[in-house]
Amino acid sequence: MSMKIGAISLGCDKNRVDTERLLGFVLSSGHEIVNDIAEADIVIINTCAFLKSAVQESLDTVFEVKSHENVKHLILAGCLPMRYLSELSGEDGLHEADAIIDNTCYDRIGEIIEDICAGKRVVMTAKAQEKVSPSRVITTPYHYAYLKVSDGCDNHCTFCAIPSIRGAYKSTPIEDLVREAQDLISQGVKELILVAQDLTRYGVDIYGEGKLLDLLRALVALPVEKVRLLYCYPDMCTNELIDYIDSEPKIAKYIDIPMQHASDSVLKRMNRRDTSRSLRERIAYIRSKGSNIAIRSTFMLGFPQESEEEFEELMTFLREERLDNVGFFIYSKEEGTPAARMKGQIAAGVKKERYNRAVALQSAIAEEKAKAAVGSVITVTYDGIDYDKQSFYGHTERQCPDVDAKVYFTSEDPVEIGESYSVLVTKTKKLDLYGRVQRSEG
Ligand code: SF4
């Protein structure tokens, strides 16, 4: 019997891809997808469990969904079951969930739905290679989509629970990714945003050597307009990779390199392979290229034993390197990780105060950079309408949609979602740019 299925995707863009693949299997098994939970017979919650706060959000969502009288069954998927399977499925477990599954059995969602409708409780963790969905159900605006090239991670940063939740690095073969990309393009996608826990390790597990460049070459050969790279581990951003980003017109002039810190001693305690010097050298090489590649990064504040001097090293690094887009996280003590067992955990108030100082510094840098764009004409891809601001908004090649600041613009002529326009920047507000579409001559 065809059921109405609702889905909620929590956490990161990699989880969003899993949800879209899962929904592809839902459709191919003959069920209907509904956008509103109030209309769903069954709700799938694809959870996040990366941080304690994400675990709480996942559980809160379960209880919230269960409060809808129309929801007959609930399927719990994703990172929460992958991290706490025995606790959730045991006698004192989470009985609100009729099925608890990990991301290796999404292709069996039809059978899982049948079983729970027949009154069975399902716990399924195949621990096999995830299969590529027949056709993904895109949940981003149709002109861009994430392409997840692998799952898991082999880096073992001491603060991170991902390797224990998602397991070892598993690449999806190039031909499967090309097929998935073709399907996305046939649905209207113009920009592919490549994601993984670590993009630069792509292929090592299945081909015996890194194959990211081969994958990029295969993707740009497709009728796609842009391919964007997120999550590149710094020491594996080779000159060859950066040269390729610089020279290939279809690769967005953008790279996301999570650096986490800039003090050698903190990086060592984090089990990161970089030093402040190697990070600065990577940045200098990227900046030596002619195409003005935007650099995005993330940093963590308040890692165990972080001294005021080590924090100041990070501040100096930010002040001197003037990165284009930066995200900051406060360290959170995650069960089962080596960092959680370290002495010298930093008091919450100190972590927050350092976070605020780092955010204030970087915001001032980014605002200055935004102001420098006033008066210039930039190419903006139209992503949607902000009804509060009564304005169109979009992103440039140097901004990742959903991640970085936006460009808000007006237009005297009709504009079409997914198309790109020349926008004259007239003002800024914090990191966002504001402008108007230049009318074409004639
Ligand atoms: S690179 Fe480090 S922080 Fe990123 S997922 Fe892997 S272990 Fe976690």
Give the key terms:
single chain, 442 residues, alpha/beta, Rossmann fold, Transcription Regulator spoIIAA, OB fold (Dihydrolipoamide Acetyltransferase, E2P), six-stranded parallel sheet, 13 helices, globular, binds iron/sulfur cluster
Architecture blueprint of SSEs:
Blueprint: E1 4-9, H1 13-28, E2 32-33, E3 42-47, H2 52-66, E4 73-78, H3 79-89, E5 99-101, H4 109-117, E6 122-124, E7 144-148, E8 150-151, H5 162-166, E9 170-171, H6 174-186, E10 191-195, H7 204-207, H8 212-220, E11 226-229, H9 239-247, E12 251-256, H10 264-269, H11 276-287, E13 294-301, H12 308-321, E14 325-330, H13 348-371, E15 377-386, E16 391-395, E17 407-410, E18 420-429, E19 432-437
Parallel strand pairs: 1-2, 1-3, 3-4, 4-5, 5-6, 7-10, 10-11, 11-12, 12-13, 13-14, 17-19
Antiparallel strand pairs: 8-9, 15-16, 15-18, 16-17, 18-19
Helix pairs in contact: 6-8, 12-13
Bound molecules: iron/sulfur cluster (SF4).
Iron/sulfur cluster binds at residues 153, 155-157, 160, 162-163, 197-198.
What does this entry look like structurally?
- The protein is globular.
- 33% of the residues lie in helices and 22% in strands.
- A hairpin with a 2-residue loop joins strand 18 and strand 19 (432-437).
- The strands form four sheets. A six-stranded parallel β-sheet has the order 2-1-3-4-5-6, with helices on both faces. Strands 7-10-11-12-13-14 form a six-stranded parallel β-sheet. The chain has a five-stranded mixed β-barrel with strand order 15-16-17-19-18.
- The protein is of the alpha/beta class.
- Among the domains are: 4-124, Rossmann fold (3-Layer(aba) Sandwich); 140-256, Transcription Regulator spoIIAA, CATH 3.30.750; 377-437, OB fold (Dihydrolipoamide Acetyltransferase, E2P), CATH 2.40.50.140.
- The longest helix is centred in the C-terminal third of the chain and has 24 residues, at 348-371.
